[in-house]
Design goal:
Radius of gyration: 24 Å
Structural class: alpha+beta
Largest sheet: 6 strands, antiparallel
Number of helices: 12
Distance between the termini: 74 Å
């Protein structure tokens, strides 16, 4: 079988759920339409092979087509070549990192959020920065699953990335040393004579949600508290823990849903026995680095009218993936279900828009002309920037009765 025929057969296999050894009969108009598109793909591939300016590498062309096919669905769906899939399966986790959470936007790896105190934070990386390349590899040509693997490595090993920042024309090459990143503990601050309890987790895993629970219970011992939950730049965690956190404040109703084409709809309902405070005023801070589990919490609180949201529109993540092995040793990672808000919006598609929009002061902090080389988020210049979002949230809570 020629490389051209193999490439077409592989595309058919991924697109229609078949492999190179057999084809299921088309059972619907949709499948028949898909077959017609495959014929078009075959014609295009034949022109590439015979008429392109130079002799193309057909396997590379096919891999790119498959990757593009999956990424056209959503950022979390990926195609893994046999070599990629082997590396993916061999990965045991627990490796050193630089402290960034990434997804794909506009074809490139994009930073969703940065872990405070991490190498990425000290290098002044922030949400919205685009990683154009990792080492010599362009992130347009790498699936999200492999990008996440490439960012990991042995403690002390060097990671070189090319980053495109807002209002910068040229990519900036940055070298970072991978470390074992420890997520900071939940921050706690009291405002307005201790009437407002401010809580800032950086990840929504069991440990940090347990800490939020304990801090709320401890604060309640001295009277009812208004709660200011800061979910800005919170992109990591577990959806189950996010449901639990939302349930601390939402006493009744739906917290979230999960549903897909062949995934039976699940509804996560509030459990009154798990509520910590179902009446105290709540304001949640969100921004473009708020993603996944944090979006679920924010959406549940907003849609149930349990509290108000302040800040910027969130990133837009929230799906469940499943890995499908293919006959040639490659694999497809496919989103099979999406999390939805109580109002019926999918976080993956719609994100969360706060009722009170306040831009981040960091957006206007620097320009190509005034940026200080080597400045970090911990530099005096940045620490002096007022937090308009926090100020607005506190003002809103001050106006409410506990």
């Amino acid at each position: 079988m020629s490389l051209l025929a193999v490439s077409v057969a592989l595309i058919v296999g991924v697109f229609l759920g078949v492999n190179v050894y057999g084809v299921r009969a088309a059972g619907s108009d949709q499948q028949e339409g898909a077959y017609r598109q495959i014929n078009v793909y075959g014609e295009v591939l034949q022109h590439i092979q015979s008429d392109y300016v130079s002799v193309p590498n057909i396997p590379d062309v096919t891999n790119g087509a498959l990757r593009g096919l999956l990424e056209s669905l959503d950022a979390d769906s990926s195609y893994l070549t046999p070599a990629d899939y082997k590396a993916y399966k061999d990965d045991k986790g627990g490796k050193a990192q630089v402290g960034i959470n990434v997804s794909k936007r506009f074809g490139y790896a994009t930073i969703i959020s940065v872990v405070p105190g991490s190498p990425a934070d000290k290098a002044n990386l922030s949400d919205g920065d685009i990683i154009e390349a990792i080492g010599t590899k362009d992130t347009r040509d790498i699936s999200l699953a492999m990008i996440q693997l490439l960012l990991q490595g042995a403690p002390g090993s060097e990671l070189q990335i090319a980053v495109i920042r807002p209002r910068k024309a040229e990519p900036e090459k940055i070298k970072l040393n991978r470390v074992i990143v420890d997520e900071p503990a939940v921050s706690e601050t009291f405002y307005e004579g201790s009437s407002i309890l401010y809580l800032k987790p950086v990840v929504l895993d069991k440990q940090h949600v347990d800490a939020v629970e304990e801090k709320i219970k401890t604060a309640q011992k001295t009277g009812n508290k208004k709660v200011l939950l800061d979910l800005r730049d919170v992109a990591a965690g577990d959806m189950t823990e996010a449901v639990r956190l939302a349930n601390f404040f939402v006493p009744t109703g739906t917290i979230a849903t999960l549903e897909g084409q062949k995934f039976p709809k699940q509804t996560f309902a509030a459990d009154a026995s798990k509520v910590l405070d179902g009446t105290a005023p709540v304001v949640v801070l969100v921004n473009r680095g708020t993603s996944g589990p944090a979006e679920l919490v924010a959406g549940a609180i907003q849609d149930n009218k349990r509290g108000e949201l302040v800040g910027e529109k969130t990133f837009g993540e929230g799906s469940m993936q499943k890995t499908f092995d293919l006959a040639d040793g490659s694999a497809v990672i496919l989103s099979i279900a999406k999390y939805g808000s109580p109002a019926g919006k999918h976080y993956e598609d719609d994100a969360v828009t706060p009722g009170t929009l306040v831009a981040s002061a960091m957006d206007d902090l620097s320009t190509p002309d005034d940026e200080t080389p080597g400045a970090t988020k911990n530099s005096p210049k940045k620490s002096a920037v007022p937090d308009d979002q926090l100020t607005k949230a506190i003002d809103m809570l001050k106006a409410k009765n506990a």
